[in-house]
Amino acid sequence: MSTPTEPPKPHILIVDDDAEIRDLLNRFLTKHDFRVTTAKDGRDMRQAMQDWSFDLLVLDLMLPGEDGLSLCRHVRSESEIPIIMLTAMGEDVDRIIGLEVGADDYIAKPFNPRELAARIKAVLRRATSSSVPDAGGGRTEKLAFVGFELDPTTRTLRKEGVDVGLTAGEYDLLIAFVDHPRRVLNRDQLLDMARGRAAIPFDRSIDVQVGRLRRKLESDPKSPTYIKTVRGGGYMFTPEVTTL
């Protein structure tokens, strides 16, 4: 009888200019069944991403040379790899900017390595579910709205035969909307539906995800017609949704 093979350990790339933090996270995450590669700046990060395949990127915001926001934009323009921003700044505006450029989560220094490990596991769970066939909770019907076709079995969105790239968070938010069309949903409801509060909730992250989703759905994201803001209430998805 053949011995079952263990699944490969998730490969994490840590990008931080602080050698002590790189060493600490390398040792801690390695002990918790991750493969770890480290980089001290954007140049090292780009080289590592050419040489290896990674499951998740932990990216410091304040780096020498090209900063973390610029690197996040670059990575997101080429890949849907999950990104957790790591920064000494704790103000909401910095958190929002990181999410706007495509980060999946955010953690401020100083932090407990156990919390970062928990965040990594939560983000990986969401990302893995987005790549597993029939990850739509057993649903098989394709959904259609205003020229878009959403396939829950593959978690993909298409318009006129062209794929519309969605991150795991954007897909989960869209599913929450299409499951509840023409109904006002507040931020807490959307957090529960879209993320299951797998990470520590930060309700403004829903606003950022809505903004990113609007840019992919709306002809004029600044004057949206599909995802309406309801003052004091939340958001409403206005299109009629049909099954195919």
Kindly describe this structure.
- It is built from eight helices and 13 strands.
- It has helices at residues 19-31, 42-51, 68-78, 92-100, 113-131, 168-179, 187-195, 204-217; strands spanning 11-15, 35-39, 56-60, 83-87, 105-108, 143-145, 148-151, 156-159, 162-164, 184-185, 227-230, 234-237, 242-243.
- A five-stranded parallel sheet has the order 2-1-3-4-5, sandwiched between helices. A five-stranded antiparallel sheet has the order 9-8-7-6-13, with no helix packed on it. Strands 10-12-11 form a three-stranded antiparallel sheet.
- α4 runs parallel beside α8 (204-217), α6 (168-179) crosses α7 and α6 crosses α8.
- The longest helix is centred in the middle third of the chain and has 19 residues, at 113-131.
- The radius of gyration is 19 Å and the shape is globular.
- The N and C termini lie far apart (45 Å).
- The model is unreliable at 131-137 and 197-202 (pLDDT under 50).
